[in-house]
Amino acid sequence: MPQQTPHAAQTPRLAPLDEAAWDDVLKGVVAVTGPLNIFTTLGRHSELFRAWIGLGSMMLLGGTLGPRIRELAILRVAHNSGCAYEWDHHVRIGRDAGLTEVEIGALAGDLDAHAWTSEDWAVVAAADELHATSTLSDAVWSALAKRLDERALIELVMLIGHYQMLAYALNALRVQPDAD
């Protein structure tokens, strides 16, 4: 659960785009995912949406990080950002990636209150440090570098930054939860 007041309880600043106005890219995404509010809202800026969906899809579906590492990082970003929309979607994806309910609950709390493996701790600590300082300490970098290759290190930092950026947009635009 995100640490801040969920923004979804507020009125959206931009309503999702009506289906009649969807371009081919948005139609293609919706055909796979369903008409999720994240896509139908961000799809209001079609050029930006096209560029963003490529990067996001690569990191979510085609990246070098394993699903568990990816979801640990994303859920911690959602928590740190108070992004209820991101949190709700990635709790489901995190479960599919093998995260337990205890681990998911721990991601919404104090990092040191859970007995993380050293790899999991490094990933969650990286999300916390990037959120707080916009960089990584040598200790966290070293812990990550023991387990991740060069490409995965780059990808993890980019993933955390990407989902932080997305949390900004979702929170500021007040994108509403999707119907289940």
UniProtKB/TrEMBL annotation:
Pfam families: CMD. GO terms for molecular function: peroxiredoxin activity. Keywords: Oxidoreductase, Peroxidase. It comes from the Bacteria. InterPro entries: AhpD-like (IPR029032), CMD-like (IPR003779). Residues 47-129 form the Carboxymuconolactone decarboxylase-like domain. PANTHER family: 4-CARBOXYMUCONOLACTONE DECARBOXYLASE FAMILY PROTEIN (AFU_ORTHOLOGUE AFUA_6G11590), CARBOXYMUCONOLACTONE DECARBOXYLASE-LIKE DOMAIN-CONTAINING PROTEIN. This is AhpD family alkylhydroperoxidase. It comes from Thermomonospora umbrina.
